[in-house]
Amino acid sequence: MFLLHGTPGSRSGPKPRPGVLHRLGIRLISYDRPGYGGSTPRPGRNVADAANDVAMIADDLGLDRFSVVGRSGGGPHALACAALRPERVVRTAVLVCFAQPDAAGLEYFRGMNGGNARDFAAAAVDPLRLVESLRLQAEQTRRDPDSLLQRLEAEMTWPDRQVVQDLGIRRLLHQAYREALRSGPDGWIDDVLALSRDWGFRLSDIDGPVRLWHGEQDNFAPASHTRWLARQIRNAEVLVEPGAAHFGSVASLPAMLDWLAGWT
């Protein structure tokens, strides 16, 4: 998940600075959720806890108002910031997001790949077995990041396979997996558990503008999840792209950043 802080006046001018983010007038700040990378684990955390973490990061950086963006498992955490810190979060962008586990009227596992469906189901009925399974997967991924990508590829739809076959994307994914798990599996485990229980906030409390993006052929987090989220959020705009899937969100991110920066 990322925080965006607009820098008014930098979107245009006689001497634009190099780089896409500079041209958009964006200061992009990323952080590790507890247990990932160099961040200390916090067992038992829930999705809502991210709002306090982000607020403290913003305080430390001297940021009063900002936008947030989250992809996949980062999406619910971005929505938590929008719901619980409305006086600070100006806009929220969410890509390929999961719905709440108790989503009324949603067939939660319909269209979802077997691996994710098994993990989310196990989190509710046999969390200890899930934890052990994720520990083993994390250790293997830490030693060989491509092993995780190969497992994911086996269940991907064709649009996602096209994306991850790009050598540059594949290299970035390897780096991300290795960095996320360098201190152990706790971040991954706590994320799955947090996403599988009550998130700790109400989507109906989100008042600010929200843009939701999803690939129509996503089978990791089906597009029906984003459509369900949109029905719960009063100021939500939904973009569902035909011919795209979960990893297709990489290509859509620049446009989302531009929209987020528009508030300046």
From TrEMBL:
GO MF terms, alphabetically ordered: hydrolase activity
Keywords: Hydrolase
Cited InterPro entries: AB_hydrolase, AB_hydrolase_1, AB_hydrolase_fold
Domain (AB hydrolase-1) ranges: 2-248
KW Transferase (keyword) present: no
UniProt keyword Glycoprotein present: no
Domain of life (superkingdom): Bacteria
Full protein name: Alpha/beta fold hydrolase
Organism this protein belongs to: Dactylosporangium cerinum
